[in-house]
Design goal:
mainly alpha, Rossmann fold, elongated
Length: about 140
């Protein structure tokens, strides 16, 4: 969890513990992910909007769920840049957190399966081209 220690952070941490999540908290940046990180919840604030996270955007990046305080074009752009699969509004409430986590994890798994399928198809197509050129 990339979130400052404030009321939202405390509520989010308490809810995550209630549903049985192991949580590591840091703020404002996280240069590398701890081994086995399956999900990142991130406060979308000016401190994090401008940071380029090196672990973000790889095929094995965990899903990111931003916690947003308000909507405006800059916030929406930041959410899209994170490739967010769900969003949690601030102030954080217990309702919706488990759903956001389930949706993000399920969609991430589906995207990874689709990427593996596309990769297999591309390899198969490359093999077909090689065979066609040989004949």
């Amino acid at each position: 969890m990339i979130h400052p220690q404030d009321q939202d952070g405390d509520e989010l941490l308490a809810q995550l513990h209630r549903i049985g999540c192991d949580v590591e908290v840091c703020w404002p940046t996280l240069d590398s992910l701890p081994f086995g990180t399956g999900l990142v919840l991130m406060a979308l604030r000016p401190e994090t909007r401008s940071v380029n996270f090196p672990w973000l955007g790889t095929s094995m990046s965990p899903p990111v769920i931003p916690v947003v305080t308000y909507e405006n074009p800059i916030t929406v752009e930041a959410v899209l840049r994170l490739n967010a699969l769900a969003v949690i509004p601030s102030p954080v409430r217990s309702f919706g957190l488990m759903t956001a986590i389930a949706v993000a994890l399920t969609q991430c798994q589906a995207l990874r399966m689709r990427d593996r399928y596309i990769e297999r198809l591309e390899k198969k197509q490359a093999s077909v081209r090689v065979i066609q050129q040989a004949t």
